[in-house]
């Protein structure tokens, strides 16, 4: 069924963790804050724990719950399936939704392998369904401003990119094993954090042609559960670093780590051009720092604050400097998705673009394993 033929758009949400709640909030905020082409209806919520599914459905405003995600996909009132489960489940859930002819909104990374990502992209394209992947940081109004400045030539010719996404939630060697530590289920710091930075680099500067990389498992074992004496072997990366060659001629560096103490959401970049430098840090997501050469002794970085002049911001607040947050970015992502379902939006990360992020991450893994430069087009 084509979503743009509907007056009401039924939403089904799979997963009740942090991202499940973030999606639920985003759907609520989108329909109360923006004029949308559809009347959003929160139809169904699914979780393997039936009691939790019912509890969250009641709390988050969904009409009903399912303990089986396939039942949610089969629900005729569900037209859009939002997937917020561990990465391993993205593939079977998305493929089932696509087979049912339903739009898919999947959290990142798209899949646990490039082969899965390719199959998902092909299936979605052949079925003609709208897809989006949760790279919500790109929907920050300040990132939109950064892209505009770059494309307008305000930095001159772009020559460099230095990017880093670090957090410290796995910094303690005694932090227990979780599904994120299993290569077949997740993919380490590169997949969990680094995919956001790779998507951001592509969004701002375009294709990356070649990479050279190094990856490291700093803590080769972790407690099976918190406080347990049982140890589980770890093979995924705790940190990955890479050199990047962009198609536009720029050179860059990339880093992802979930061990870096003191950082909570340090998605950051500096982009250098022949006429200036632009810097951003997600921990200060409402500002950009811009440097353009000036008179000696009077040059320096300018701080640009978010405000209602940037698209999306004014829907939440009419005054500059009052700050948007993570959930507002998720709301803006949902709004773009809904506009796309109405035939009016093409700016979000769909399965085709998310597959390119997976291709790039795969190239980095190969480069790190084989200790050589890898052309992304060869992957």
**Over the alpha carbons, how many angstroms does the gyration radius reach?**
21 Å
Shape assignment: globular
Find the CATH topology of the largest domain. Answer: Dihydrodipicolinate Reductase, domain 2
What distance lies between the first and last C-alpha atoms, to the nearest angstrom? 35 Å
Kindly report the oligomeric state of this protein. Answer: single chain
Which stretches are low in confidence, meaning pLDDT under 50 for 5 or more residues running?
A: 1-5
Widest sheet: strand order?
A: 16-15-14-13-7-12-11-8-17
Strand segment tally: 17
Q: How would you characterize the overall build of this protein?
A:
The chain has 379 residues and is of the alpha/beta class. It folds into two domains: 3-136, Rossmann fold (3-Layer(aba) Sandwich), CATH 3.40.50.720; 141-284 and 286-324 and 350-374, Dihydrodipicolinate Reductase, domain 2. The chain is built from nine helices and 17 strands. The chain has helices at 18-33, 50-60, 69-74, 90-99, 114-127, 141-151, 188-205, 326-341, 351-370; strands at 8-14, 39-46, 64-66, 80-83, 103-106, 131-133, 158-166, 208-216, 221-223, 231-233, 239-246, 251-257, 266-273, 276-281, 287-291, 301-305, 374-375. The strands form three sheets. The chain has a nine-stranded mixed β-sheet with strand order 16-15-14-13-7-12-11-8-17. Helix 4 packs parallel to helix 5 and helix 7 (188-205) crosses helix 9 (351-370).
């Amino acid at each position: 069924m084509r979503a743009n033929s509907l007056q009401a758009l039924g939403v089904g949400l799979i997963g009740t963790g942090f991202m499940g709640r973030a999606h639920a909030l985003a759907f609520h905020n989108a329909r109360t804050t923006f004029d949308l082409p559809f009347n959003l209806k929160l139809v169904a919520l699914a979780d393997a724990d039936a009691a939790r599914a019912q509890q969250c459905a009641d709390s988050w405003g969904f009409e009903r719950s399912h303990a089986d995600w396939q039942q949610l996909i089969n629900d005729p009132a569900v037209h859009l399936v939002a997937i917020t489960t561990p990465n391993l489940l993205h593939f079977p859930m998305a493929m089932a939704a696509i087979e049912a002819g339903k739009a898919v909104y999947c959290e990142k990374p798209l899949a646990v392998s490039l082969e899965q990502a390719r199959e998902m992209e092909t299936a979605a394209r052949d079925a003609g369904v709208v897809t989006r992947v949760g790279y919500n940081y790109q929907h920050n109004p300040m990132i939109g401003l950064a892209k505009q400045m770059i494309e307008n030539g305000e930095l001159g010719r772009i020559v460099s990119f230095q990017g880093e996404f670090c957090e410290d939630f796995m910094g303690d060697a005694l932090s227990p094993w979780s599904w994120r530590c299993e290569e077949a289920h997740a993919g380490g710091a590169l997949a969990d954090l680094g995919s956001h930075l790779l998507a951001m680099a592509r969004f701002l500067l375009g294709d990356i042609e070649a990479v050279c990389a190094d990856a490291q498992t700093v803590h080769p074992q972790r407690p099976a559960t918190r406080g347990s004496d049982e140890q589980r072997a770890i093979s995924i990366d705790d940190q990955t670093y890479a050199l990047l060659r962009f198609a536009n001629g720029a050179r860059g560096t990339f880093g992802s780590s979930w061990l870096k103490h003191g950082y909570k959401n340090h998605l950051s970049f500096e982009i250098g051009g022949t006429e200036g430098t632009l810097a951003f840090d997600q921990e200060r997501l409402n500002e950009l720092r811009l440097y353009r050469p000036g008179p000696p002794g009077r040059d320096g970085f300018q701080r640009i604050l978010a405000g209602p002049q940037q698209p999306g911001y004014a829907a939440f607040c009419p005054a500059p400097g009052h700050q948007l947050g993570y959930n507002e970015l998720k709301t803006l992502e949902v709004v773009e998705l809904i506009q796309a379902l109405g035939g009016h939006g093409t700016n979000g990360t769909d399965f085709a673009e998310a597959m390119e992020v997976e291709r790039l991450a795969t190239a980095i893994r190969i480069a790190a394993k084989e200790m050589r430069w890898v052309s992304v087009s060869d992957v």
